[in-house]
């Protein structure tokens, strides 16, 4: 009988540890693990918040990616918007003219869908620094006009300084 009693006591001592581990896993949930482990997330609303921008009404093919780790963080967000509306949208964030840009696309991970090269395509870009949640971010925009007929690609990227 002493062996059975010892086994019961050992199991009783382990139970609080098991309860604690299960409780932590449930409390953290899937997003908590992502934050702690530095995993990647795809949430356009969160990406827009990090970038300090808004996603305009009527935007299509919205894609985002955020990676956060001990080495830093990187967020990208892209979408198509009507070509006749991109300039007023961009002027909300950049008061100066955008410069001609030669990059094909800005992305933290694998490049997103690309625009076909045409004679009507114009690539413009700009960069600045913004404060987001008490941290400084380098923020860049790439504008590719007529990515699709009547649609302009807006691609944002930020990285924590």
List the helices and strands and how they pair.
Elements: H1 2-37, E1 40-41, H2 44-51, E2 60-69, E3 72-82, H3 86-91, E4 99-100, E5 123-132, E6 135-148, E7 151-160
Antiparallel strand pairs: 1-2, 2-3, 3-7, 4-5, 5-6, 6-7
CATH topology of the largest domain: Protein Transport Mog1p, Chain A
Number of helical stretches of at least 4 residues: 3
> What percent of residues adopt helix (DSSP H or I)?
25-40%
Distance from N terminus to C terminus (CA atoms, Å) equals 65 Å
Indicate how many domains the architecture comprises.
2
Spell the H/E element sequence: HEHEEHEEEE
Query: Which structural category fits the helices and strands?
Result: alpha+beta
pLDDT below 50 for ≥5 consecutive residues: which ranges? 16-39
Mean pLDDT: 73
Give the class-level CATH name of the largest domain.
Alpha Beta
Describe the 3D structure.
The protein is α+β, with helices and mostly antiparallel strands and 161 residues long. The protein has two domains: 1-37; 40-160, Protein Transport Mog1p, Chain A (3-Layer(aba) Sandwich). It has three helices and seven strands, in the order αβαββαββββ. The protein has helices at 2-37, 44-51, 86-91; strands at 40-41, 60-69, 72-82, 99-100, 123-132, 135-148, 151-160. It has a seven-stranded antiparallel β-sheet with strand order 1-2-3-7-6-5-4. The longest helix has 36 residues, at 2-37. The chain is globular. It starts with a helix and ends with a strand. The relative contact order is 0.16. Mean pLDDT is 73; it is low at 16-39.
């Amino acid at each position: 009988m002493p062996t059975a009693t010892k086994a019961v006591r050992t199991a009783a001592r382990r139970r609080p540890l098991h309860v604690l581990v299960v409780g932590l896993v449930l409390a953290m949930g899937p997003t908590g693990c992502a934050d702690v482990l530095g995993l990647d997330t795809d949430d356009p609303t969160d990406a827009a918040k990090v970038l300090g921008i808004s996603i305009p009404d009527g935007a299509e093919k919205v894609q985002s990616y955020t990676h956060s780790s001990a080495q830093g963080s990187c967020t990208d967000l892209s979408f198509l918007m009507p070509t006749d509306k991109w300039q007023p949208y961009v002027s909300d964030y950049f008061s100066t003219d955008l410069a001609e840009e030669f990059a094909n696309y800005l992305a933290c991970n694998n490049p997103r869908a690309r625009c076909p090269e045409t004679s009507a395509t114009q690539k413009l870009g700009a960069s600045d620094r913004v404060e987001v949640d008490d941290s400084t971010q380098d923020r860049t925009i790439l504008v590719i006009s007529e990515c699709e007929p009547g649609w302009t690609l807006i691609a944002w990227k930020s990285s924590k300084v």
